[in-house]
């Protein structure tokens, strides 16, 4: 699959919705883990760290999407740029539980317990053409 086919077949609405949910939850969970570990002393640091992680994970996911597309097109080693996006995987178990209870809230047909950073959410119509 070439890079243009990869980006043409992506269901952008579902991809961005799931990515946003994963980013928001993962940033919150990472900050809670830091709070429980004792590395965040007070509430003002909690919110500053949350905003920082929100931005870091967002940038990581934004870099990972084209990196995965380029890797699927056969460009060597570019897939390594997607590694920081694995920070978002921390939210997957919670999203999986929500998807099991209320599947209409998560716009995917199947959400596994642990997913790669960039989900392959493709239009089925584009794949059959």
**How many domains comprise the coordinates?**
1
Strand runs, count: 0
Task: Give start-end ranges of low-pLDDT stretches.
Answer: 124-129
Q: How far apart are the termini? A: 14 Å
What is the alpha-carbon Rg in Å?
A: 16 Å
Number of helices: 5
Which helices and strands appear, and what pairs or packs with what?
Layout: H1 3-8, H2 12-37, H3 43-72, H4 92-101, H5 124-128
Describe this entry's structure for a reader.
With 129 residues, the chain is mainly α. It has one domain. 60% of the residues lie in helices and 0% in strands. α2 crosses α3 (43-72). It is globular, with a radius of gyration of 16 Å. Residues 124-129 have low confidence and may be disordered.
In brief, what are we looking at here?
The chain is mainly alpha-helical. The protein has one domain (3-128). The protein has helices at 3-8, 12-37, 43-72, 92-101, 124-128.
């Amino acid at each position: 699959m070439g890079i243009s086919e990869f980006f043409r077949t992506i269901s952008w609405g579902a991809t961005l919705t799931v990515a946003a949910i994963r980013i928001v939850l993962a940033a919150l969970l990472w900050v809670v883990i830091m709070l429980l570990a004792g590395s965040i002393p007070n509430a003002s640091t909690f919110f500053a760290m949350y905003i920082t992680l929100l931005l870091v994970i967002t940038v990581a996911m934004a870099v990972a999407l084209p990196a995965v597309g380029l890797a699927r097109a056969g460009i060597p080693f570019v897939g390594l740029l997607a590694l920081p996006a694995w920070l978002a995987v921390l939210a997957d178990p919670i999203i999986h539980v929500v998807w099991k209870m209320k599947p209409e809230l998560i716009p995917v047909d199947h959400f596994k317990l642990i997913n790669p950073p960039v989900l392959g959410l493709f239009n089925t119509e584009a794949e059959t053409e």
